[in-house]
Amino acid sequence: MVAIVRIPAPLRKYTGGQRQLSVEASTVAGVIESLIAAFPELRAGLYRPDGALRDDARLFVGSDDIRLRQGLDTPVLDGETVSIVPPVAGA
Q1: Model pTM?
Q2: pLDDT tens digit sequence for 60-71
Q3: N or C: the chain end with fewer CB closer than 10 Å?
Q4: Residue at 22 is within a domain
């Protein structure tokens, strides 16, 4: 399965400025693993030092927040978009 991953501006410094990437994976966990395999520095932007996913790393498959589905085990179908959404402060 090929997923399209949208990279937010704060994390593009880890991906050579790329806004969107294609990775092969069948779950969100697989998407993240593929991204980190290609861009090891990205780990710091997604994971806490203890190895857990950062609380402010919001991940969506399509328009669904993975926290409301199966978390990192959420399936990703061929051609689906996985979005990493940075935290929004203020307002």
Answers
A1: 0.88
A2: 999 999 999 999
A3: C
A4: yes
